[in-house]
Amino acid sequence: MSLTTPLVRARWCDIDRIVDLVTATFSPTALGAWLVPDKQRRPRVLADVVRIWTEHALLFGDAFLLPDGTAAAVWFHRYRPIPLPARYRGRLTAACGQHRERFLLLDRALSARRPAEAHNHLAFLAIPPGPNGVDRADAILRASQRWMETLGLPTYAEACTETHGDLYRRHGYADLDRVPLPGGMIAHPMLRLPPSWTSRSSGNSAVHWSDRRPSGRSRNDRVSEWATR
Q1: Average pLDDT over residues 25-50
Q2: N or C: which end of the chain has fewer CB within 10 A?
Q3: Helix, strand, or coil here: 73?
Q4: Is 191 strand, coil or helix?
Q5: Using an 8 Å Cβ cutoff, are 12 and 58 in contact?
Q6: Taking 70 as the threshold, does the pLDDT of residue 214 lie above it?
Q7: Which domain holds residue 102?
Q8: Confidence of residue 204 (pLDDT cuts 50, 70, 90)
Q9: Domain containing 61 — which CATH number?
Q10: Does some domain include residue 3?
């Protein structure tokens, strides 16, 4: 698929489809199994939690689908602190029941390591198993990433599977320090700097930021410094 792959900006009526895609992507993973050990209950619980955050993203971010509805990306615009979803604790309890504390532990582990500075956060990248999975993954990430880059901010993602980590690296994301998760798992926070930060020569705070860094550093070093300031 090419750089001109079309993209559908999701609306409220698309939430059901996005929830189905995210649930199908994460239900088979080790993280999904830790969050909800009961294999029969897992898809329903995950779907209810994903719905909470997808609805929130349409208020404080963006969500996208491929035109054929086979992949989705859910983003938050973290220009400033984002409030929790309305009635979050109550909704989470209703969705998760006895598993609520596991979801809260995951929330705390990930949110504690996110950059404090303005960025766009890829919360969910959903590519369920099926034909042309690599092509679909490349297409939805590439197209939604291009949309985010028009905003001129770094983009941040947390890879909880090797497949997602490899995908993000192919698209220019650099690894930050790993985040230990409950249950012995590891999340891989990753950051991608926008092209404008290196292509502009003056009159931009991002360029001033770049100029303050010692020369001769690798792109990964620059990313790590930005994220930990």
Answers
A1: 96
A2: C
A3: strand
A4: strand
A5: yes
A6: no
A7: 8-228
A8: very low
A9: 3.40.630.30
A10: no
CB–CB of 140/2 below 8 Å?
Answer: no
For residue 107, what are its two tokens? 């929330």
Q: Does any domain span residue 219? A: yes
Q: How far is CA 192 from CA 35, 50, 156, 202, in A?
A: 28, 24, 6, 21
Domain-embedded: residue 2: no
Q: Render pLDDT for 79-127 as a digit per residue (tens, 0 to 9).
A: 988 999 999 999 999 999 999 999 999 999 899 889 989 999 999 999 9
Q: Can you say how many angstroms the Cα of residue 79 is from the centroid of all Cα atoms in its chain?
A: 15
Give residue 165's identity as a one-letter amino acid code: G
Residue 207, both tokens: 């360029």
Q: Which amino acid is at 162?
A: E
Contact 59, 123 (CB under 8 A): no
**Number of domains composing the chain:** 1
Instruction: Flag whether 149 is in a domain.
Output: yes
